[in-house]
Amino acid sequence: MLERVRIFNDRYDEHWLQQMLFNHPEILPIEQIRAEYGPLIPIGLEINCGSGNIDNLYVNADGLLTVVETKLWRNPEARRAVVAQLIDYAQALSTWTFEKLDSICREKTQKGLVELARQDEAEELFDEASFIDNLVENLRKGRFLLLAVGDGIHSGLEQMVDYLNRAQNLHFHLALVEIGVHQTSAGFVLVPNVLMKTIEVEREFVRLKTDNGIELISETTQSSSDRKSGRTTLKDFNEFYDLLISTGVTQHRADCVKQIVSDFSEIPYIIVYSNKALMIKLIDPKGSSTKISVFYLWHDGFLHMGWPQQQLLKLGFSLDISSKLFDKIKELFNVPDAKISIQKDGLREFRNGTLPAELIVEKYPEFKAIVDEYTAAIYNA
After folding, report:
1. For residue range 258-288, what is the model confidence (pLDDT) as tens digits?
2. Which residues have a Cβ under 8 Å from the Cβ of 90 and sit 6 or more positions away?
3. Are residues 247 and 137 in the same domain?
4. Quick one: 207 and 242 in the same domain?
5. What is d(CA 117, CA 93) in angstroms, rounded to the nearest whole number?
6. pLDDT digits (tens, 9 = 90+) for 58-113
7. CA 368 to the chain's CA centroid
8. Can you give the residue range of the structural domain that contains 201?
9. Could you tell me which residues are beta bridge partners of residue 56?
10. Are 215 and 209 in contact (CB under 8 A)?
């Protein structure tokens, strides 16, 4: 039996929620709001930006920043105030340089922005130059995702349009997220709910979408919501499928990719998209925000293993788990040693062009069994 409790009581207060969102950024329903801003990588808590302290600040491997403000919304004025506060933060951040943000990141995490972002994505997928260029550009243009997170919102959303129009020089997206805390005999469960999100906020164009489907529009101009910035992150499988076809992949191989992915779209697996690959990852059973790599599919329809060893070491797992996965897939498809790339630290990966999707499908039951065994080994460790 789930019992709803209010946040900001003696046990569940604002600082508790901030820490929960820092330790478990996957609580925030980014896929429902703006998928291109995920996966979220925490930079720090209570970051002074000159206009106050940002509760939670995140970046992702594409150089996109997410700003979170946690608040108790008991009245419309408080809700408008938190939105105004978020916009003030965005205005302040838009004056920052990469070097300033990098310095704060090192202070908070003992790592630079590049190192922090690189560890969340397969090494061969991470483009350092693009990451820096994108982040510099996003800071300059004020291209951020602003999230107001609390325990309840009611009416009065249309009055927020005035506050959004204060920042016509910025290009941000904004959402209001309710976090429901439900007490159980075993602990608690957090249930997020997106109550409002902007489809686009750019110059004089503001469009809000509420939880009941009502759209509130203020002074509509030509929307540029389809415009991408920097390295374009794919949003869903349909975009990935189109990319496969556009790069010359045969219809048969593209359909084989679709067949493989269909079995990995539910918990504990999650699908993460980059600009040119689709990655199958596992939610860390120990509760961290790290997503453990299983395999990924390149835009040419070939399968790669990535480098899960570093993630497993970081999380305290045995490297034997990933070694067995690699060895069994190598044996299943009779991959010769000449098709394997070995790094100086002994990590192994299949070379480009080794495992096309159609070959995986030919032995799919065996392949799926090997992956499921890998998953079970992690979850039972």
Report:
1. 999 888 877 778 888 877 888 888 877 877 6
2. 67, 142, 144, 146, 167, 170, 172
3. no
4. no
5. 19
6. 999 889 999 999 876 555 555 567 778 888 999 999 999 999 999 999 999 999 99
7. 25
8. 3-218
9. 45, 68
10. yes
Between CA 282 and CA 292 the distance in angstroms is 5
152 phi and psi, to 5 degrees?
Answer: 170, 135
Question: pTM for this one?
Answer: 0.58
Copy the structure tokens of residue 258: 């679709």
- Looking at the structure, do residues 212 and 243 belong to the same domain, yes or no? no
Phi-psi region of 346 (alpha: psi -120 to 50; beta: other; left: phi over 0): left
One-letter amino acid at 26 equals E
* β-strand partners of 282: 269, 292
Evaluate whether residue 230 is within a structural domain.
no
User: Does residue 243 share a domain with residue 211?
Assistant: no
Taking alpha carbons only, the member of 198, 203, 195, 201 closest to residue 176 is 195
C-alpha span between 63 and 345 (Å, rounded): 28
Are residue 196 and residue 99 in the same domain, yes or no? yes
Among candidate residues 205, 286, 256, the one with its CA nearest the CA of residue 358: 256
Q: How many CB atoms lie within 10 A of CB 234?
A: 21
Cα-based distances in Å from 350 to 32, 285, 295, 326 = 34, 27, 11, 9
Same domain, 184 and 288: no
Are residues 181 and 284 located together in one domain of the fold?
Answer: no
Rg (CA), the chain: 22
Q: Which amino acid is at 237?
A: F
Q: Based on the fold, state whether residues 106 and 241 are members of the same structural domain.
A: no
Which helix (H) or strand (E) covers residue 11, if one does?
none
